[in-house]
Each structure stands twice: as structure tokens, then as C-alpha cells.
Amino acid sequence: MASITVPDPLPSPTEDAKSLWKAFDGMGKDDNAIKELLCHRTSAQISQIARAYEELYKEKLMDRLNQEFSSFLQLHSKPAIMQWTMNPAERDAKWAYKATKEKKGERGSLMIIEIACGSSPDHLMAVRKAYSTLYSRSLEEEIAFTSAFKEPLREFLVQLVTSYRYNGDNADESSAQSEAAILYNGIQANHLLQDQVMRMISLRSKSQVKATIRHYEKEYGKTFEEEIAACTSPFSDLMKVVVRCLVSPEKHFAEVIRASMEGLGTDEEALTRGVISRAEIDMELIKEEYKRRYKTTLTHDVIEDTSGLYKDILLALIGPEKEP
Questions:
Q1: How far apart are CA 321 and CA 324, in angstroms?
Q2: Ramachandran region of residue 178, left (φ > 0), alpha (ψ -120 to 50) or beta?
Q3: Which one is predicted more confidently, 131 or 102?
Q4: Cα–Cα distance for residue pair 166/23, rounded to 1 Å
Q5: In the chain, what percentage of residues exceed pLDDT 70?
Q6: Residues within the annotated binding site for Ca(2+)?
Q7: Whole-Å CA distances, 139 to 43, 147, 185
Q8: H-type alpha helices, the chain
Q9: How confident is the model at residue 265 (pLDDT cuts 50, 70, 90)?
């Protein structure tokens, strides 16, 4: 359930390209016009606009945006508008590259998990292709040889990014029941990254993992999250994120976005990534989950925690809250 709203009738890509040129031109650029246009178009529509812009003005839209948002005063808004305008697969590929260079391996591994498990199979494949084009090596190769991750986590992440999962709703209940027992044994032994568990979680479809979790909770009388919270494995938190991203990603991203605005200061990188990566996927579900869990709206917290053009970009991508 995407949150992006587009105008009706929708201008042609050529009309939008001309509107952007007009917003760039003159004594000073029209930030609001740029934001209103780009943040109310889907990624597919932005791609068409970018092609029309380059044909008309012989320069790339991304290059012009980079130039226009280069002042210190736009330090906060520039990453947001640039990342939203970027091709989604290329954007995730760049985030994945950054993840492999993180000095704190846990933050990097979480970013890889979000991309691998929170995406559709086709999008993940597109990310891997974009990664190879951008960096002249595969994403799985990067993960396998980086010093940011250690075994067995490294092997698990490689399995996650190379999996092309069945994307339908069918699930084998018999397999789900037997694999719930495997998962239970792994949790009880505090050995979450044993081969059977890694293979099951990295290869099974999202619908199959959902069925396994359902059987787990029915058979053992506790929720998976209660069980994983009591597990002392060093990988318990990561496994919780993997399963959440596969089964109910709105819960994970509501938590990520909330955490980015808690405490002193704002983790703008995490906030921007959380909003931009989900705006065309499940932002409406995230807003519902956010309101249910935190007894306030995402819109309210963004308004309280951010300002200026950066705030306006985020709000446009989040979209209006539903009336009670």
C-alpha cells in the first residue's frame, strides 16, 4: 500500500521536464515546485521525466539536482530529494555498498537484510544487476569478501541476497510444521545460524515462512518474537529483523523510523532511508502500525523532529494520515 499521491490529470513527462527546468531557472530555484513535482510522482514516472529532461536540455536530471542542492543550507534536504529521484534499484545498490563499508557491522548487516528480505524477488534481482554495473563486482562477492561481516553471518547474508523466492501465496503446511520444529530447536539451542535454519529462512518464500511461524506459535504456545527475545544467541536480534522483513515488514520499518527520531538529535540517514524505501511499497501499513504501537501519528513525529524543506519532502512521501 503505497503512500505516493499523483495529480489527476497527470502531466506528460515532457511537461514535467519543462516545469522542472523553469523551477531551476531564474534568480533562484523554486524548491517547493521541485518538491511538489518529484515527490508526487512514482519512480517509474520520474524515470520517464528524467529521460525527457535529458533529451530537452542535454544534461542529466540527477546532475542538475546535485548542482542545485549544493549549498550548506540544503545539507538535510539534498540526500532526500536525490535518493527519491534515483532509480530504486540503483539507490538500493548504493545503500548496499555503503552497508559493506560500515565500521559497525551490525548496522551494515541490518541494511543488507532490509534490502534482501523487504524487497520483491524481481527488485532484489534488479538491485544485484545495478550493483554489478556500478561497482564491477557482484553484491554477493562484496559481502563474501568484506571484513565488515564475520562467519557465519557472512554466509547467511550471501544466501539472503542470492535467493530468488517464489512470490505467490501458496504454502506447504506439512513443510511448515516440520520446519517450525527445526526453528524451535535452533532457538532452544541458541544456535540460530545452523545450516538448516539458514537454508530455510534464506530460501523459502515469504508465504512459506509465514506458515512456519504460524505453526511455531500454535505448536509451542509462544509468539516467535517472545521466543527470539529470550534466545541468547548473538544473532537473535538479526534473525528477528530477517523474519519481520519477510513476514510483516511494516512492524520493522515503523520501529526503525521511530528509533531514528528518539533521543537527542535525529538519525536523518535512517529516517530518510526508512521513508524513501517504503513510500511505494507499504507506507500506509507502516503508518497504521506506527499509530497502533506508539499512540501518535508518523506525520506528527516528523513535524516535531524535522524542519524546512527536508520535513516537507518527508511529509509528501509519507502522504496524509487517514481520518479516524
A1: 9
A2: alpha
A3: 131
A4: 44
A5: 98
A6: 24, 26, 28, 68, 265, 305-306
A7: 23, 14, 31
A8: 13-24, 31-38, 43-57, 61-68, 77-85, 88-100, 105-117, 121-135, 139-145, 153-162, 173-188, 195-203, 206-220, 224-230, 236-247, 249-261, 268-278, 283-294, 298-305, 308-318
A9: confident
What cell numbers appear for 28 in the block?
Answer: 533562484
Q: State the binding site.
A: 24, 26, 28, 68, 265, 305-306
Name which of 181, 179, 167, 183 is nearest 125 in CA terms: 167
DSSP string, 112-125: HHHHHHSS-HHHHH
The torsion region of residue 221 among left (phi > 0), alpha (psi -120 to 50) and beta comes to left
Nearest in space to 157 (alpha carbons), one of 135, 132, 140? 140
**CA-CA distance, 253 to 263, in Å (whole number)?**
18
Other beta carbons within 10 Å of 62: 16
| CB 317 within 8 Å of CB 274 | no
Region of residue 110 (left: phi > 0; alpha: psi -120 to 50; beta: else): alpha
For 54-73, the pLDDT digits (tens) are 999 999 999 999 999 987 66
pTM of the model: 0.94
- Whether 103 shows a pLDDT value over 80: the answer reads no
Tell me phi and psi for residue 23, to 5 degrees.
-70, -30
